[in-house]
Amino acid sequence: MPETIGKYILALDEGTTSARALLLNREAEVLSIGQFKIKQHYPHPSWVEQEPRDIWNAQLRSARKVIKNAKINPSEIVAVGITNQRETTVLWDKETGKPVYNAIVWQCRRTAEIVEGLRNYASLIKERTGLLPDSYFSGPKISWILDNVPGLRKRAERGEILFGTVDSWLIYKLTGGRVHAIDYSNASRTMLFDIRKMRWDQELLGLLNVPEAMLPEPRSSSEVYGQTDPRLLGASIPIAGDLGDQQAALFGQTAFDAGMAKCTYGTGNFMLMNTGTKPATSKRLLTTVAWGITGKTTYALEGSVFVTGAAVQWLQEMLGILKTPKEAEELASSLTDNEGVYFVPALTGLGAPHWDQYSRGTILGLTRGSGKAHIARATLEAIAYLTRDVSEAMEEEGSVKLRELRVDGGATKNDFLMQFQADILGKRVVRPTNIETTALGAAFAAGLAVGYWRNQLELSKIWTAEKTYEPQMRAPDRDRLYSKWREAVSRSFGWAKAAS
After folding, report:
1. What is each CA distance from 32 to 10, 241, 282, 339, in whole angstroms?
2. What does the pLDDT read at residue 493?
3. How many CB atoms lie within 10 A of CB 412?
4. CA 132 to CA 281: how far, in whole Å?
């Protein structure tokens, strides 16, 4: 039965393309949703930026919309949980709170040259942070901004400039500038954070020439960081949960035990596997902090695919092949197979397990008979192939066999994609009743901190499966398709570097 005592959790879900807010009750039912888009800017090829004030305004508007539409008193909200696009980097003036440069989005590849200079330190970076040197992460982005905005580095060294991932920016704004904090999961995505000692690493700060004075305070993922400025939402509400979006989705899927895995289908695809209280060692995947709760740190292996849902968006906005994302499923289903057409959507390079920042988008197998249906199908199939790439690396390096994949994100509503995912994996794919698992994870973390939910066992009982996709493809067909995919991927490697 729905919660009746009038107490709610507000989850703020700040994604790459929009800011959302969701109001949930004790049964984790979503009672109201607000959402506003965030404009992306592309000043140069492979550069991606956002205006930090656009991020903040979209998030604030969405929260206010949720409260208004639900017709509740803001004082009935017991806690706010935040989840966010992770590596996106914001720098602002400590005194005025005004951004000093546009936010550099996680997809941006402008720091490739900085990253190349770190290759000799790859082992050190991997050991301390669990990450590989890549433009994906926040550290090189901070360094680039400090080097390219006149006078900014000296100001940062004097303690006049603050850095934050988007969660830090939102916490700072929500508390009226009183709190400058970051949770362990987001800190672990900066390439500056020691994931074993749970603190900023002095040697890595020196390598990237990042002043420690500008960094937020690392905190656990479930605690009260501060109170919202009552002028913003109409009440002073505890901000009590903070998780990077992919860790939040793992938490929202209640994947609390080692070996449990989820994949989120959004702008990119992100697969995480809980590895318990010790960080796993991996060459091709990322080792990351899943969350820090009740004094215990949980780790995960992660495979990040940069462009999946964004490729569908590209078909719609840049090529005009689709009128809506839903049309991709209709076009793909109009064909009985891909007829040899493959699309490697390396529009901003390739992430795990390939890690080639110079790879670029490649379409292979076109004939005179190929049309928009083939490209749409190849795009959806690519999402599933890339997920299998990560899954195979995860099984190999995590020494765990994947029994099922819990999925979430908007693209999980695409039945063609989900069935093909099960087919190409040869594993069942499970979609939960509540696919808002990213926001759910933030809500769960916040609720635990204030006693709204008692413990993780109570949360596990809330999670239910809505649909299960069993693999139907014959093994020889699966192997044939995947073999051609791997060949297509190899053709995309190094393209931007060779062409420069």
Report:
1. 10, 19, 40, 43
2. 95
3. 25
4. 12
Residue 140 to residue 344: CA distance in whole angstroms: 26
Residue 418 to residue 430: CA distance in whole angstroms:
9
Q: Which of 229, 166, 167 is nearest to 446 (CA)?
A: 167
Measure the CA angle with vertex 168, ends 163 and 170; round to 5°: 120
What's the CA gap between 56 and 66, in Å, rounded? 16
CA 379, CA 384: separation in Å to the nearest integer? 9
Question: So what's the pLDDT on residue 3?
Answer: 41
Burial readout 199-230 (b: 16 or more C-beta within 10 A, e: otherwise): ebbeebbebbebbeebbbebbbbbbebbbbee
- What pTM, to 2 d.p., does this model score? 0.84
In order of their start, the domains of the chain are: 8-245 (3.30.420.40)
Cα 39 to chain centroid distance, Å, stands at: 18
Across the chain, what does the average pLDDT equal? 93
Assess contact for 404 and 388: CB atoms under 8 A. no
Nearest 5°: phi and psi at 115?
A: -65, -40
Query: What percentage of the chain carries pLDDT values higher than 70?
Result: 98
Is the Cβ–Cβ distance between 352 and 283 less than 8 Å?
A: no
Alpha-carbon distance 14 to 84, whole Å? 5
Percent of the chain at pLDDT > 90 equals: 85
Of 416, 414, 430, 425, nearest to 467 (Cα)? 430
Asked if omega into 353 is within 30° of 0 (cis), the reply is yes
Average pLDDT over residues 271-279: 90
Contacts (Cβ under 8 Å, ≥6 apart) of 4: none
Q: What is the pLDDT of residues 469-480, one digit of tens each?
A: 999 999 999 999
Contact 41, 51 (CB under 8 A): yes
| Higher-confidence position of 282 and 318 | 318
CA dihedral 157, 161, 166, 170 (to 10 degrees): 140
Q: Going by DSSP bridges, is the β-strand pair 217-219/199-200 parallel, antiparallel, or unpaired?
A: unpaired
